[in-house]
Design a protein that fits this description.
Blueprint: H1 8-14, H2 16-25, H3 32-44, H4 51-57, H5 68-84, H6 103-112
Helix pairs in contact: 1-2, 1-3, 2-3, 2-5, 2-6, 4-5
Length: 125
């Protein structure tokens, strides 16, 4: 039986640094909410059919795939990369002490405002 996915806010509150590192690993594709939902879907064993993962799951960007197993694998690989590369995310990319523009600061702002204060567009840096 699969777990139910957490809401974006629940996931951000539980794993704010991992959400920030996933934002950084995506090179700005993920907003705080999108990164949190990707983590939540992964935890629940569900596919995340975002544009980035469908491109990763397909042959190339012009031939995306929406195959459930390939989307789940793309999510798993991206999250593993975010965790593995967390020590390489410097400055604005996710360090808690880097001020307003860091990925972590954006996650904190979203948590503090209950999701009302975060970038609307994914390319936040």
């Amino acid at each position: 039986m699969q777990d139910q996915p957490r809401t974006a806010q629940e996931q951000m509150r539980r794993t704010p640094l991992l959400v920030a590192h996933l934002m950084s690993e995506s090179l700005g594709y993920f907003s705080p909410t999108a990164a949190a939902l990707a983590l939540s879907y992964h935890r629940a064993g569900l596919p995340d059919a975002c544009e980035m993962y469908s491109a990763y799951a397909g042959e190339d960007h012009e031939h995306p795939s929406f195959d459930t197993d390939k989307l789940i694998d793309a999510n798993r690989r991206t999250i593993a990369g975010a965790f593995r590369n967390r020590h390489r995310h410097f400055g604005y990319m996710s360090q808690p002490d880097q001020g307003r523009g860091s990925a972590y600061a954006l996650v904190r702002a979203s948590i503090d405002s209950d999701g009302r204060n975060e970038p609307v567009l994914a390319g936040w840096f």
